[in-house]
Specification:
- The complex is a heterodimer.
- Chain A is of the alpha/beta class.
- Chain A folds into two domains: 213 residues, Rossmann fold, CATH 3.40.50; 77 residues, Alpha-Beta Plaits.
- Helix content of chain A is 35%, strand content 30%.
- In chain A, the strands form three sheets. Chain A has a six-stranded mixed sheet with strand order 5-6-7-3-8-9, with helices on both faces. In chain A, strands 11-12-10-13 form a four-stranded antiparallel sheet, with helices on both faces.
- In chain A, α4 crosses α5.
- Chain A is elongated.
- Chain B is mainly α.
- Chain B has one domain.
- The two termini of chain B are 22 Å apart.
- The chains are: A alpha/beta, B mainly alpha.
- Chains A and B meet through β5 and α3 of A and α1 and α5 of B.
Amino acid sequence: MEILKINKLTKHYGKLTAVDKLELSIDKGSIYGILGPNGSGKTTTLGMILNVIRPSSGSFTWFADSDLNVNRQKIGAIIETPIFYPYLSGQKNLEIFCKIKKIGYADIDRVLNIVELYERRKDAFKTYSLGMKQRLAIAGALLGEPEVLILDEPTNGLDPQGIAEIRNLIINIAKNGITIILASHLLDEVQKVCSHVMILKKGKKLIAGRVDDILREPDIFEVKVEETEKLRELILNNSDLNLIQEHQGLFVFSYKEHSNGKDLNQFLIENGLVASHLQKQEKSLESYFLNIIEHA
Amino acid sequence: MLRLLHIEFIKAFNFKALWYLFLIYILALGIILFGVETFINDIIGEGGRNLPITLPKMSLYAFPLVWHNISYLAGFFKVFPAIMIIILVTNEYSYKTIKQQVISGLSRNELFFAKISLIFATSAIMGLLVGIFGFILGFLNTETIVFNVVIAKSQFILVYMLEVFAYGSFGFLIATLVKRSGFAIGVLLLWAYIAEPIIAYKLLGDWGDFLPLRSIGNLIRIPNSQLMKIFGIEFQEYISSGDLYIALAYTLIFNLIVWIIYKRTDL
């Protein structure tokens, strides 16, 4: 079942196009990552589908239904930093959420227990640590058992322990069948948490699909040969090889999945090339991602 | 609507600064209401000695005159509820909670009507308070209590509520345009006590009466006291429908502008 359908969604800020004719479809039960560097339009996109930012053009539909206000109660969301009334306690802040979502206060204890803030519920929000604030935000988003949870940079500004806590929380929440839309600039986060991903750059969709397909770890090799022209031609004409960089005779390119140096060497020899340097790159996922961002 | 009011109530009830403002308002109103009569009576007493006729000792606070007199005096303090509204509206911007409420599921209309319900409730509370003061002062200063006389002219309290509502709506507009509490309160005071009086002074004829705050203030005009009658001045002792229409029109315009802003802007 389709949870969200985005159709040519566009937002202009003066001359700047923050989001450019975005198309997206999210199915029920998926953990959908929106991945992109800062300023790529992630938050603007989430703002629009949450009715906070008015789209310049285009449209979106939740739950294949046109009435946004009815459906909003089924969506829990956190955008950027946790926002609450600092002088109110965690409990009182969540009471406001309950009133907004038209549900009883009974659900408050449940969500406070999930995020382990029950003991501190009577304390004012301003006395909470950043990690606790973020957890309260997640508690707020979980009120009323939403069908969709939208999280924007949920681990931003947290220490390693806080990051681990939040990620485990997200994975546990997803086990209950809630659809999650997660925006992040951290490749690692999306890879660890998400089932699907869309990569955004300057408001445009670069690529979208299953994380296994898109963020699979490609094998990237550095190769030096004497006959550079021949290698360049081979790389350009062979779909198994994707050139990432060529610098002073050193070719950096990706090769088939799960390949090793031996496979590549054999392939080169079969094509009449002898490598004077052949090395498999470590941490290739990051560079692969950067390559998508920079060259797409 | 009650749900929206409840949301506003949680925010307002637990906000300390608001309570201080409310206490100052009650204190200031009480001092003025209980103090003015003694003050005027003293003047009459002093002035009366040199007059050939003896002035009747008439209380400002006897039923039914009390309603007009008290709501007129309370009118000087309507800036307090307006400031309270400005604080509550601008809080949403400084805490960014206006955005969070939409994220949590409030529609733009609900966001707007929550604040309208807040202004309405504030006006009702202020009106009720002045009404209670009116009853106390009325019973203290009227020799024979007759029900019909007691409630005659009590419509002034209702009009006072409208006055607070209209003034609060003006505060709502300024708060929405300016977004920062200190700045918004500054703009309100500057407009109310300096800019508008100057413009009113510069305008020819009665056109000054059509300025927003002055026309709201005109709802309840200066009451006719016995003292004034001595000087031969006659004031309007009733609520004129013309004044009512102008004030209502302004209230509608203020809120309409805010509604359009709430509907259109990115949060």
